[in-house]
Amino acid sequence: MSRVLTRVGALVAAVVLMFTSWSVATERRAEALDPFTGYLMAHFTGEHSTGEQIYLAHSRDGLRWTDLNNGAPVLLSTVGTRGVRDPALVRSPAGDRYWIIATDLRIANGTSWSDAANNGSKSLVVWESTDLVTWSAPRLLNVAGAISGAGNAWAPEAIYDPSSGDYVVYWATNATLNGVKKHRIYYVRTRDFRSVTSPVLYIDRGQGQGIIDTQIIESPSGVGGYRYYRASADGHITVEGSNSVLGSWTTIGNLSHMGISNGTGGGNVVEGPMWMQFNGRTEWALWLDQYATGRGYMPITSTNLGSTRNFTTRTDYALGSTRKRHGSILNLTAAEESRVLAKWGTSTPVNRIQSYNFQDRYVRHADFDVRIDPNVSPAQDAQFRVMPGLAGTGTVSFQSVNYPGYYLRHSNYDFVLAADDGSATFRADATFRQVAGLANSSWSSFQSYNHTDRYLRHYAYQLRLDPITDATGRADATFRLTG
C-alpha cells in the first residue's frame, strides 16, 4: 500500500512540475508577443580595470540612455581571460530564454593587441537566463578552435534562423587562408549555446581587406526589399541585404557620402555597427562607435534600409555617464522592462562617511589609497554609494561614485579603493556589518565581515581595519553617513 501511495505522490509531483514548467514557458511566450516598450543596451566601456565587463543601459525612446546599476558592471567574467568585450544580447523566439555572448579578451591585463589577435582565446564567454535578470555563471564556448591557425574569436553575434530552427553564431577570426592572414567572419550553428557545429567561412572581403565587426538585423516586413540587413566594418561601413541569414547577400552601399568610414575612406572613423529598430514604427538606427576620436556611439537613422542614401545623422541623443563601446541593443516588452528596472534601475543615494572625532573630515580615496580629509576636491572622491553587501545579506559595501565598480576593501588590514574582481576574497574584504557606533550609538561603526574582531577605523588619518580596545579606538571607529 505504501508503495502505491509513493507512486501516486510521485505522479502528482510530476504533474505539478510539468504544469508549473508549462505555465512559466507559456507566460514567457506570451511576453514575446507583447508590444515593445523600451530598449536595453549591453556594452563594455574601455580598457580600464573594470571596463571589459558587462554593462547595461536603458532607454524609453531609443535615443536617450540611462546607465543601469549606478553605472557599474552587472556581470563579471571569471573564466578565460577574466574580461569580456563586444557583448551581444540574444532572445529566443519564444521569449523564454536569453543569452549574452561576448569576446573573451581583457586588454587591461597588459595583453598586446598583436598577442590577442594571434594567440588569443578561441572561445566566447556565454551567460544564460530565463528572465533577463538572473544569469548563470559564465562559461566558455569554443567556436574557433577547429579553424586552422586560428588566432582569436572576436566580436560575436547571433541570430535565430527560422529556416533551420537554430541560431547562427558568427564572429571574426584571424587566420591564414589561401596564403593571406587576416580577420574573416566565420559561423557555427547551435540550439543551446553549449554545443556547436564545425565553423564555416561566412564573409571574406578578399584582396587583403580584413573584417571584424558585423551585425545583422531582421526586417520581417521586408522594407527596402530584403528581410535581413547586415552592416560590416570592412574598411568602410558596408550595408548589405538578403532574404536568408546564410543565403547570398547584395551590397546596398556604404556611408562614405556621409563622411563615415572604418578607415579606408577617412573622415569620421568608426567601428562596432549596432542595429536597433524603433519600437512601433518602421524606422531603424545604426549606432556607430567613434573609437578613433573617443566620442563613443553616435546614431544615424533611416526609414528605408534599401539605400544607404536614406540615412540621416542624429544629434538628439544622450548616452549617459559611461562611455559605451561595441555592444548590442534588445527591444524590451513591458514585462521584461519592468524586471530589468526593478533589478538595476533604482539609483542608490550618494553618501559621505563623516568621522566622529574629526567632524570636518570625511573618508576619501586618493590615488586609490583611503584616508580621512577635510575639504575634499574633487568632491566625488569622498562620495560613495552604500550598496547591499557583496558577500552576505544584512551587510553593506561602499562603491565609489566616480569609479563605479570600485569598492572600499581591506588588504593586509590597510584600506584601498579597488575594482571588484569577482572573487570571493574580494567580496568578503569589501563587506561590513553596520552596527551602532562604538563611541556614540546614534552614529555607526562598520565591523569586518571576514575578520569579525576588527572594525573600520582611522589612524593618523589613514583608514585601517583594527581590533578596538580603548576609548580612542572607539572614537576612531565611529562614523556617520551623510548626504
UniProtKB/TrEMBL annotation:
Q: Which domain of life is it from?
A: Bacteria
InterPro entries hit by this protein: AbfB_ABD, AbfB_ABD_sf, GH43_arabinanases, Glyco_hydro_beta-prop_sf
What SUPFAM superfamilies does the annotation carry? AbfB domain, Arabinanase/levansucrase/invertase
Give UniProt keywords alphabetically: Hydrolase
Q: Which Pfam families match?
A: AbfB
Annotated Alpha-L-arabinofuranosidase B arabinose-binding domain residues: 352-480
Q: GO molecular function: any one?
A: alpha-L-arabinofuranosidase activity
According to its UniProt entry, this protein's organism is Saccharothrix carnea
- GO terms classed as biological process: L-arabinose metabolic process
Protein name per Swiss-Prot or TrEMBL: Glycosyl hydrolase family 43
